[in-house]
Amino acid sequence: MKHLVIISFLLIYKLGFTQNVQVDSQSYTAQQLIEDILIGSNCISNVVVTNVSGGNFNGTDQSYGYFDASGTSFPFQSGVVLSTGKLSNVPGPNTTLSDDDANNWNGDNDLENILNENNTTNATIIEFEFTSIASQISFRYLFASEEYQENNANTCQYSDLFGFLIRNVNDVQCDNIALIPNTQTPVKVTTVHPEIPNGCAAQNEAYFGSWNNTSAPINFNGQTTVLTATANTVPNETYHVKLVIADEQNYRYDSAVFLEAGSFILNTDLGEHRLIATNNPLCKNETITFDASASNGNSYKWFKDNIALINETNSTYTATETGTYNVEIDLGNNCTSYGEITIEYIENPIVSNTTLIACDENQDGLTTYNLFDAEQTITNSDNTLQITNFYRIPSDAENQLNEISNPSTFENTIPQQIVYARVENQSQCFSIAEITLDISINNMAIAPFETCDDNTPDGFTLFNLDDLRNRIEPNVPVNSVITFYKTTDDLFSETNALPDAYENVDAYTETIWVKIENGIDCYAVASVDLVVLESPQFSSIKNIGYCLNSYPETITIDSGLLNASNNNPTYQWYLNNSIIPENSSSININETGTYTVTVTFNNGCSESNTIEVVPSNVATIENIDILQASENSTITINVSGEGIYEFAIDNSIFQDSNTFSNVSAGIHTVFVNDLNGCGMVQQQISVLGFPKYFTPNGDGINDFWKPYGVTSEFYSDIDIKIFNRYGKLIKQIKPSQSGWNGTLQGQPLPNDDYWYRVVLKDGSKYTGHFSLKR
Question: Domains of the chain (ranges plus CATH)?
Answer without folding.
Answer: 2-266 (no CATH), 282-346 (2.60.40.10), 354-439 (2.60.40), 443-529 (no CATH), 543-616 (2.60.40.10), 620-687 (2.60.40.10), 693-772 (2.60.40)
